[in-house]
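[step 3/7] fold_predict: job queued, chain A
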Amino acid sequence: MRFITKTIHARFDHLVALMLIGLPFLLGLGGSNPLALTISPLVGVAAFLLTVFSDHHLGLIRCRRTALPA
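[step 4/7] structure written:
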C-alpha cells in the first residue's frame, strides 16, 4: 500500500526544491547569519537538479541507464 502516488511525489519534489530556493529571500532570512541564507538555496538547487534528472515521468531529462561491466 502506498501513501502517495508517484505523480504527487514528483510534484512535491519540484515544489519543495523551488521553496528551498525562494523562501529564504522572501522571508528575509539570513540577517543574523548569512550562511543561513546560503545553505537553503544551495540545497534547493541540488534538489531541483536531482528532480530534473530523475527517471519519473515529470523528470525533464531522463538519463540512459547503462550496464556496468561485470
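[step 5/7] annotate
The mean pLDDT is 82.
The CA atoms of residues 9 and 36 lie 27 Å apart.
exit 0
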